[in-house]
């Protein structure tokens, strides 16, 4: 994933209108001020919410069918030509295939074949500390050649991207529970791949997990510290029956957290929204708490809801006067930008960036919105995410194209430097963006991925070893719903 800057509750209950939409009990305590769904003027909905979500979700899902190499199951990091595969994107793909089956977008047989191709590839690919390999110690290089599967761009062996891959591997094993030879093999490979990862090695001599490793220089300087998308990394590392991370690793990580009061919200800070979304694609944090959140009287689901509102409120306040920001247009995250240049716009000097992990409220911010981020927060705050989606659909149709979200767009550059009425719009699409859209829409609609992972003994063990308790984790694992098994 990304190396990024980090800075980093009183308990607030969820608004009543949110309870009706999620159907789940909130944490107890004083309520946030009522935030009823906003109504954007002069915008008439053309599609019911479910139909609108279905179109965006289907378009995002199709990314994986369009960019996968069916011979080895690898999926391109981006739709741009000649781009390598991202192991994290493969993890998202493996998690999205069950969604496609349940929604009728791909047959179970086709999904199982794509899944099996990926699992066989990773199991049989070369591991070692040389150059012409795919991984080492059960971890995999961040980017792989789409055809050969070998390390691309001399990139790092990535701990968090391997964790995202393993999350998808475990989803596959949980979903494909049939008796066919393919589905039996999927389950066997899922277990074998997860057991092979040497999480203890990835700590080096420290309790926290390292961010990456290269064969000639060794571990990268940085550890995974400060709140971010690495929750799934620590949980899966703690659960391993082979070479788990040490028992003090999770506590060492949470000791680096930063708690802040932002716009009146007490929150565990992470600037870009993806930090509050990625681990949540697989783990339902609603109502379960670790020691840190028990002390704060909150949980990570509630924290992500507050982070979503912080981004909305930041856009409302729009302290830097960027174009388009407001109730219906918000959401900063990691993604493309218009480029590294300066321009004077409406008598104000502006400095723009290319790819960056943008965040609110402490920045960086150059006016670039990540339009997919509102959909990725849908389970946390549908009452503000759905109106934001409608605003995009009605006011920026050139951005969403055929219902597939780009990495970003910058309306401050509207009709400038050769850009159109929505300003600069990113070319192509990223698999990470499409994957988180598919999974979070599905968790909002049916809880499919959350339910599958709740049934995973590895996830449950990892959460308990990390100190989580309460909520669904205190109950026995539920049997899989009918329909998951042929």
UniProtKB/TrEMBL annotation:
List the InterPro entries. Glycoamylase-like_cons_dom, UCP028431
Where do the record's region annotations for Disordered lie?
14-43
Annotated Glycoamylase-like domain ranges read 223-457
Which top-level group of life is the source organism from? Bacteria
User: Which protein, by its recorded name, is this?
Assistant: Glycoamylase-like domain-containing protein
């Amino acid at each position: 994933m990304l190396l990024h800057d980090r800075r980093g509750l009183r308990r607030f209950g969820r608004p009543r209108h949110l309870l009706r939409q999620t159907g789940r009990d909130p944490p107890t305590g004083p309520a946030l001020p009522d935030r009823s769904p906003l109504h954007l003027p002069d915008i008439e909905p053309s599609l019911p919410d479910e139909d609108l979500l279905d179109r965006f979700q289907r378009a995002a899902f199709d990314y994986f069918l369009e960019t996968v190499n069916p011979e080895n199951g690898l999926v391109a990091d981006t739709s741009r030509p000649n781009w390598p595969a991202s192991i994290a994107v493969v993890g998202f793909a493996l998690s999205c295939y069950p969604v496609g089956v349940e929604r009728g977008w791909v047959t179970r047989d086709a999904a199982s074949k794509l899944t099996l191709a990926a699992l066989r590839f990773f199991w049989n690919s070369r591991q070692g500390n040389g150059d012409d390999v795919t991984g080492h110690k059960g971890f995999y290089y961040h980017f792989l050649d789409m055809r050969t599967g070998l390390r691309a761009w001399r990139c790092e062996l990535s701990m968090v991207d391997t964790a995202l891959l393993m999350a998808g591997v475990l989803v596959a094993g949980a979903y494909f529970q049939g008796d066919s030879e393919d589905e039996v093999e999927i389950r066997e490979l899922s277990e074998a791949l997860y057991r092979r990862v040497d999480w203890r090695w990835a700590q080096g001599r420290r309790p926290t997990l390292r961010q990456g490793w290269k064969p000639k220089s060794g571990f990268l300087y940085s550890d995974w510290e400060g709140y971010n998308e690495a929750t799934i990394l620590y949980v899966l590392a703690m659960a391993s029956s082979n070479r788990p991370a040490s028992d003090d690793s999770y506590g060492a990580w949470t000791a680096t957290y930063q708690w802040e009061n932002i716009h009146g919200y007490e929150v565990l800070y992470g600037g870009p929204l993806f930090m509050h979304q990625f681990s949540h694609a697989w783990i339902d944090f609603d109502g379960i708490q670790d020691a840190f959140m028990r002390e704060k009287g909150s949980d990570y689901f509630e924290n992500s809801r507050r982070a979503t509102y912080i981004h909305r409120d930041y856009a409302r306040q729009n302290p830097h006067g960027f174009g388009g920001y407001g109730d219906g247009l918000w959401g900063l995250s990691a993604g493309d930008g218009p480029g590294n240049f300066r321009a004077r716009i409406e008598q104000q000097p502006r400095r723009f960036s290319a790819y960056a992990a943008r965040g609110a409220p402490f920045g960086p911010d150059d006016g670039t919105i990540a339009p997919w981020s509102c959909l990725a927060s849908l389970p946390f705050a549908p009452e503000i995410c759905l109106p934001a989606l409608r605003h995009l659909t009605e006011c920026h149709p050139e951005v969403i194209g055929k219902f597939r979200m780009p990495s970003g767009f910058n309306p401050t550059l509207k009709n400038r430097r050769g850009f159109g009425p929505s300003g600069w719009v990113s070319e192509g699409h990223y698999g990470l963006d499409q994957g988180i859209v598919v999974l979070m829409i599905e968790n909002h609609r049916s809880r499919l991925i959350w339910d599958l992972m709740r049934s995973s003994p590895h996830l449950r063990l990892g959460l308990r070893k990390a100190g989580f308790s309460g909520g669904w984790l205190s109950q026995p694992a539920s049997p899989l719903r009918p329909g998951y098994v042929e």
